[in-house]
């Protein structure tokens, strides 16, 4: 096992510059992946992140038909529910670009009604297993060893330091076997979710957090300046040669002492 490399923090003076630089970074990651392997594998989060992907719309050089997209986490709700990360991404980005529908890997909609209810966790296990099998089909014998190797994982960070659906103090933080896990007691509603696990996130070639706004300032300070506190976002440290980046605006970075790196492609 190689040591993880230190995060690279890039801060931008305004949200528009952040969105544009993020788009350039994603396109560069895509080009490198396609030239090596003919496809680009991406895991994407919900929350405020899909809105930040707007810089990709109408950009030349995006080979949408080569993208294979999974969700870093998803809430167990119907796809038309306002809590659905898929719905959010659909509204903010997928409906605005020519990505083939079959290249977006969602939870199995047929399994959602049962997973939304019931006292036992069998249906949650089943929906997480089905998503893991979809990942295995996409990655096995291509970009995986013990875990899949995503070309890029895009993450957000919540005020409590959670990322994907990995929450502070939750037993899922220690999951070291599964690719996809379920959670039935998320402290942030909705309670039932599935998430990629830390070993998957930390095997990615690149991981990029995106955060903007002064309401993220305290969280970023703790995550980046006090990783010893072990907040979930601090535990994202991809193994070498993987690299973690932070794309933030100056408001979100206002309390961070961790050194900033000028953005360059
Ligand atoms: O619940 C979630 O929260 C995180 C952070 O969301 P944000 O709105 O504070 O950016 C998000 O990354 C995750 O996908 C989502 O399910």
UniProtKB/TrEMBL annotation:
<dbReference type="GO" id="GO:0005975">
    <property type="term" value="P:carbohydrate metabolic process"/>
</dbReference>
<protein>
    <recommendedName>
        <fullName>6-phosphogluconolactonase</fullName>
        <ecNumber>3.1.1.31</ecNumber>
    </recommendedName>
</protein>
<dbReference type="InterPro" id="IPR005900">
    <property type="entry name" value="6-phosphogluconolactonase_DevB"/>
</dbReference>
<comment type="pathway">
    <text>Carbohydrate degradation; pentose phosphate pathway; D-ribulose 5-phosphate from D-glucose 6-phosphate (oxidative stage): step 2/3.</text>
</comment>
<dbReference type="InterPro" id="IPR037171">
    <property type="entry name" value="NagB/RpiA_transferase-like"/>
</dbReference>
<feature type="domain" description="Glucosamine/galactosamine-6-phosphate isomerase">
    <location>
        <begin position="14"/>
        <end position="246"/>
    </location>
</feature>
<comment type="function">
    <text>Hydrolysis of 6-phosphogluconolactone to 6-phosphogluconate.</text>
</comment>
<dbReference type="GO" id="GO:0017057">
    <property type="term" value="F:6-phosphogluconolactonase activity"/>
</dbReference>
<dbReference type="Pfam" id="PF01182">
    <property type="entry name" value="Glucosamine_iso"/>
</dbReference>
<keyword id="KW-0378">Hydrolase</keyword>
<dbReference type="GO" id="GO:0006098">
    <property type="term" value="P:pentose-phosphate shunt"/>
</dbReference>
<comment type="similarity">
    <text>Belongs to the glucosamine/galactosamine-6-phosphate isomerase family. 6-phosphogluconolactonase subfamily.</text>
</comment>
<dbReference type="InterPro" id="IPR039104">
    <property type="entry name" value="6PGL"/>
</dbReference>
<dbReference type="InterPro" id="IPR006148">
    <property type="entry name" value="Glc/Gal-6P_isomerase"/>
</dbReference>
